[in-house]
Here is the input.
Amino acid sequence: MMPVPEIPIVRRRELTAHPDYRRVRRHLRERTWTRIAPGVFVSSAEWRALTGIGRHRLRVEEVLARLEAPAVVSHFAAAAVWAIDLLGAWPDAVDVTIPRATGGRSGGAIRRRALGLERVERVPFGAHEVTTPAQTALDLARILPFTRAVSAIDQTLWTGRRGGALATKDDILALLGTESVRGDARARRALAASASLAANARETQMRLLVIALGFPGPRLQERRRLRSGRVVFGDLYFPEADHWLEIDGRGKYLSAEFVAGRTPAAIVIDEKNRENEIRREVRGFSRLEASDADHPQRVYDVLTADGLRSRKPRPRAGDPVLR
Here is the structure.
């Protein structure tokens, strides 16, 4: 499970002096503090520094601490608990699933989904329960657009995760059962397009995009030992064209694991040498930023300019390439 981010938290119930209440109101007015749950505040700067999934994980923790009755944490909230990252924005409300007959109302901090609990797979989570990774992926795939749904499943199946995949395709298929539930057709389509080697949601998005743009189907995390003995992995590799694609997220160059004590100059030189070695062993090489997946025309132009052929024409501005 994903650990709760550790940043200073101010809770109204822990305040005793009136000046403290005035301080809270002042900070909120000046936007130096952010309210993340009823009566819970954090520094706006530290809140912004967290990832989207990190912010939601902290919100889940604080909202659940104020629930009197046990709840079944589900959907986006469960994804944050299991470290299943997603494309797009995370919601402000915390998802819980409740019995159909309950008909409970959603409040500002909680979104109650009256879907029933009869066939919901879940495990203990402190005083509450949380849907299993397979159930969480299925729940999200039933309600999300195709690309976001596949990203949820891919992150659940990802075998490169520390400790291994959270679930398998068979685990998710077993939950679909024989009785049709709303969203099952959508979920089956997303499941059919899923893969277990996508290291992050942006890789999923790029893989789906290049296929939708008419390029040949790629392999993920292509492993190759170069003539120098260096072992490299390509984010996407197109075997039909012997074309290698690197997808660079800017966070990669800021991570301590990647930097490994090297100076910026040493990183640039090492990356350039690595790229030159790869180029000598493949017919085609491209490099894209992860955010380029939001711009289909840019991806099409880069790949075709680098020699990768598409069976489709260049998309026009506004064409719905991915949904």
In short: The radius of gyration is 23 Å. The chain has a mean pLDDT of 93.
